[in-house]
Amino acid sequence: MAKDAKSNKDVKNKKHFFKDFKAELKKVVWPTPKQLANKTLAVIVIVLITAVIVFVLDVVFDLFNQEGINRLKSNIRNKVVVENTINQSENSAENATNNTENSEENVVDVNAVEDGASVNNAQ
């Protein structure tokens, strides 16, 4: 008996649900075909405009990003070139200093040899 009462209650609830559902659908104000077409067209136009705006922003940001990356690459290349140039200049200066010292020693050696040769010639 308890099962029969429960099943009767479920059937009543289902009937009540569908009656309420039907009553709510009658309260809905349905658009006319012309209103439906106008509103659908408005939604499509707004979606297309938004898509175009997003596309343009994407392209612009991508160009800025590429330009920024290219600028960073060129800055890094310039920094490496400047550092290499500075290192080469320092190495050249050190080599020039070493060559000057070596040539002064050679001059002294040549003078010493010439003096020795003069002394040998004098003897």
Please sum up the structure shown.
The chain has helices at about 1-25, 35-120. The chain has two helices and no strands.
Structure explained in plain terms:
This protein is an all-alpha fold and 123 residues long. The chain is built from 2 helices and no strands.
* Helix/strand order, N-terminal first: HH
Averaged pLDDT? 77
Overall, the morphology is: elongated
The portion of residues forming beta strands comes to: under 5%
**Low-confidence runs:** 117-123
Radius of gyration: 48 Å
Helix content: over 70%
End-to-end C-alpha gap: 152 Å
- Total of helices: 2
Largest sheet: none
Give the number of DSSP strands: 0
Structural class: mainly alpha
Q: Could you give the topology of this structure?
A:
Layout: H1 2-27, H2 33-122
